[in-house]
């Protein structure tokens, strides 16, 4: 039985973004092990029939001792499983996992770049970002390594910095969405227009920008519009604190819903999806799901986000960190139900054409079977 070891930061990310790939591999005869930090959802992973090994990792940490502990753990694991295909998802698993795989001489490596985050968001690369690319260049310098990119800007960054060769590069646009589960649903008939944000409560995701835009519209729309912020807290030192969020939300016009598992239902109950992120995204799953359900999207013309919207067709693109333009664009969709319906239908067509989970899974199976 061929072995597949999938390494991700946390169990909750695995469940929301990669479980269908792992389950498909298992059905095709792979011995699948998930390696990730246990945030309390280990039982959910194991109930799927998958093995889980807890990964000692601080997803947002910079302590060198902790980082070396993650590397040593993966090196030990891979030396015991040299015949495995290892699939790293995210920057930190990709960095330490690729190095460990190189020294352990595993059968094959698949690295998935699912967004490079704040560290690579600035136009000029920082000293740390440059050093990370150097380490990745060393770790990926092997014929048995493949890199999956979700957007072409990340691919260009790796190629222009000679991290990989073009032959190693693969392109899969996002994590996919189950089109049978996230069905097209006409917007609800309601006197109150609901604007939904789904994402972690991190400033770089545009939470404060959306709140500023909502407050700019308050005098005209309070009682007629509700802004719903759906997402949990994050352990990043730069993440928003619970007290800060409660201070910014009044519980009525602007509501914080916290972490929710019923995102599909929330999408069906809303009229507009707003995601003004300036974080260096891969392709945001929340926007892929919004397309599938048929909701018009307002997001930024930034890496990853812009790949989900054809401006003026299934939504609008606005400049990052610009609450005034965001407010103006929100007003357009709030006032025009016919435009919302038209854009929603275009979004569904885009999801069917570009974001099918079935196609994403098939592409991953083909990659695994190459080795």
Give me a quick take on this structure.
By secondary structure, this protein is of the alpha/beta class.
Q: How are the elements arranged and paired?
A:
Layout: E1 3-10, H1 11-17, H2 19-27, E2 31-37, H3 42-46, E3 51-54, H4 64-79, E4 84-89, H5 91-104, E5 108-113, H6 127-139, E6 145-149, H7 152-160, E7 169-171, E8 193-198, H8 207-221, E9 225-230, H9 242-248, E10 254-258, H10 263-269, E11 272-275, H11 285-293, E12 297-300, E13 315-318, H12 323-335, H13 337-354, H14 357-370
Parallel strand pairs: 1-2, 1-4, 2-3, 4-5, 5-6, 6-7, 8-9, 8-11, 9-10, 11-12, 12-13
Structure description:
With 371 residues, the chain is an alpha/beta fold. The protein has 14 helices and 13 strands. Strands 3-2-1-4-5-6-7 form a 7-stranded parallel sheet, with helices on both faces. The chain has a 6-stranded parallel sheet with strand order 10-9-8-11-12-13, sandwiched between helices. Strand 8 (193-198), helix 8 and strand 9 (225-230) form a beta-alpha-beta unit. The longest helix is centred in the C-terminal third of the chain and has 18 residues, at 337-354. It is globular, with a radius of gyration of 21 Å. The model has no long low-confidence stretch (mean pLDDT 95).
């Amino acid at each position: 039985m061929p072995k597949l070891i999938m390494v991700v930061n946390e169990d909750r990310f695995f469940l929301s973004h990669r479980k269908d790939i792992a389950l498909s591999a298992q059905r095709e005869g792979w011995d699948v092990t998930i390696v990730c930090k246990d945030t309390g959802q280990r039982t959910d992973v194991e109930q799927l029939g998958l093995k889980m090994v807890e990964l000692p990792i601080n997803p947002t940490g910079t302590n060198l001792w902790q980082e070396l502990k993650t590397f040593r753990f993966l090196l030990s694991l891979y030396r015991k499983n040299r015949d495995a295909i290892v699939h790293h998802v995210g920057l930190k698993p990709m960095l330490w996992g690729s190095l460990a795989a190189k020294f352990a001489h595993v059968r094959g490596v698949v690295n998935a770049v699912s967004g490079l985050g704040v560290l690579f968001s600035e136009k000029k690369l920082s000293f740390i970002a440059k050093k990370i690319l150097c380490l990745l260049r060393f770790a990926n310098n092997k014929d048995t390594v493949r890199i999956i990119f979700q957007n072409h800007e990340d691919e260009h960054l790796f190629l222009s910095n000679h991290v990989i060769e073009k032959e190693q590069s693969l392109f899969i646009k996002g994590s996919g969405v189950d089109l049978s589960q996230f069905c097209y649903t006409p917007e609800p008939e309601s006197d109150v227009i609901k604007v939904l944000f789904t994402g972690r409560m991190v400033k770089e995701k545009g939470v404060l920008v959306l709140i500023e835009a909502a407050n700019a519209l308050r005098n005209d729309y309070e009682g007629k519009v509700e802004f719903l912020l759906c997402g949990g807290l994050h352990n990043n030192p730069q993440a928003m604190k619970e007290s800060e969020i409660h201070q910014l939300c009044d519980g009525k016009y602007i509501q914080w819903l916290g972490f929710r598992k019923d995102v599909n239902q929330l999408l069906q109950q809303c009229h507009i999806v707003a995601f003004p992120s300036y974080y260096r995204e891969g392709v945001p799953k929340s926007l892929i799901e919004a397309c599938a359900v048929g909701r018009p999207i307002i997001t930024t013309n930034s890496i990853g986000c812009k790949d989900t919207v054809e401006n003026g067709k299934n939504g609008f693109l606005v400049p990052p960190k610009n609450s005034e333009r965001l407010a103006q664009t929100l007003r357009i969709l709030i006032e025009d139900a016919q435009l919302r319906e038209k854009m929603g239908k275009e979004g569904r067509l885009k999801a069917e054409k570009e974001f099918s989970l079935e196609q994403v899974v098939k592409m991953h199976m083909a990659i695994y079977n190459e080795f």
